[in-house]
């Protein structure tokens, strides 16, 4: 995919790569964001009860902040089961990295575990971006 712009001494915008909507209406900010979304930082000694409470109804979406490239404590079947239950009831769960410059890659076993139970890999989305997208959905 070609870049939208390049920067050197000058900025060269590649207008042919920029999509222009035919909609010329004014920009609007939507205030009807879902308030039943949250952010949960995963850590090895996390109690199942904490995770369960963070995923229970009426929560509709959760951003999981995981280790490295999207890893969780893979031997903690209790945590995995609670996440799977939430996904099965319709809660949207997104996996993002706790690392500043990290990204989620479900090709690793521990990241794959989350992917296999229905968690969405957030790729290189920041926690804040994933949270706002969940709030909008």
Short description:
The protein has 137 residues and is α/β, with parallel strands linked by helices. It is built from four helices and six strands; from the N terminus they run E-E-E-H-E-H-E-H-E-H. The protein has helices at 48-55, 77-88, 109-116, 127-136, and strands spanning 5-7, 11-13, 37-41, 61-66, 92-97, 120-121.
Distance between the first and last residues' Cα: 27 Å
CATH class: Alpha Beta
SSE topology string: EEEHEHEHEH
Please state the overall shape, judged from the principal axes of the Cα atoms: globular
Topology, element by element:
Blueprint: E1 5-7, E2 11-13, E3 37-41, H1 48-55, E4 61-66, H2 77-88, E5 92-97, H3 109-116, E6 120-121, H4 127-136
Parallel strand pairs: 3-4, 4-5, 5-6
Antiparallel strand pairs: 1-2
Helix pairs in contact: 1-2
Offer a few descriptive terms.
137 residues, alpha/beta, two-stranded antiparallel ribbon
Can you tell me about this structure?
- The chain is an alpha/beta fold.
- The protein has a single domain, classed as Rossmann fold.
- 28% of the residues lie in helices and 18% in strands.
- The protein has four helices and six strands.
- The strands form two sheets. The protein has a four-stranded parallel β-sheet with strand order 3-4-5-6, sandwiched between helices. Strands 1-2 form a two-stranded antiparallel sheet.
- Strand 5, helix 3 and strand 6 form a beta-alpha-beta unit.
- Helix 1 runs parallel beside helix 2.
């Amino acid at each position: 995919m070609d870049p939208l712009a390049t920067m050197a001494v000058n900025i060269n915008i590649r207008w042919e790569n920029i999509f222009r909507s035919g909609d010329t209406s004014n920009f609007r900010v939507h205030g009807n964001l879902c308030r039943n979304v949250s952010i949960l930082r995963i850590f090895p000694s996390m109690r199942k009860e904490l995770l369960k409470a963070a995923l229970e109804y009426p929560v509709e979406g959760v951003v999981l902040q995981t280790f490295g490239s999207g890893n969780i404590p893979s031997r903690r079947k209790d945590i995995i089961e609670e996440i799977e239950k939430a996904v099965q009831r319709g809660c949207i769960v997104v996996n993002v990295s706790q690392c500043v410059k990290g990204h989620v890659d479900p090709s690793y076993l521990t990241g794959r575990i989350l992917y296999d139970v229905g968690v969405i890999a957030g790729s290189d989305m920041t926690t804040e971006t994933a949270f706002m997208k969940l709030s909008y959905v």
